[in-house]
Design goal:
The N and C termini lie far apart (67 Å). Helices cover 68% and strands 0% of the residues. The longest helix has 35 residues. It is mostly helical. It contains three helices and no strands.
Length: 77
């Protein structure tokens, strides 16, 4: 396949990928509702499993210092 043909089909592929993702999310949400109504359920969403958020292991003090340094706040004691 030529580069021009690949570029021409890219929007169609991106749309199909997005539709597939929306469908998967729809199905998993409904399966979760069915499971909850029958007494068994999962605690995570499909999107959280596929795209997990990074874990922040910083202490409260480290977070405060980071916010202060990024915003340029001057702490007066």
């Amino acid at each position: 396949m030529s580069p021009k043909a690949i570029i021409a089909t890219l929007p169609v592929k991106l749309k199909q990928d997005r539709e597939d993702e929306v469908y998967r999310d729809y199905v998993t949400r409904n399966l979760r509702l069915i499971a909850e109504n029958t007494g068994k359920h999962y605690t995570k969403e499909y999107s959280d499993i596929i795209n997990p958020q990074p874990v922040d292991n910083r202490s409260a003090e480290e977070i405060i210092e980071d916010v202060i340094s990024k915003t340029g706040i001057e702490v007066i004691q």
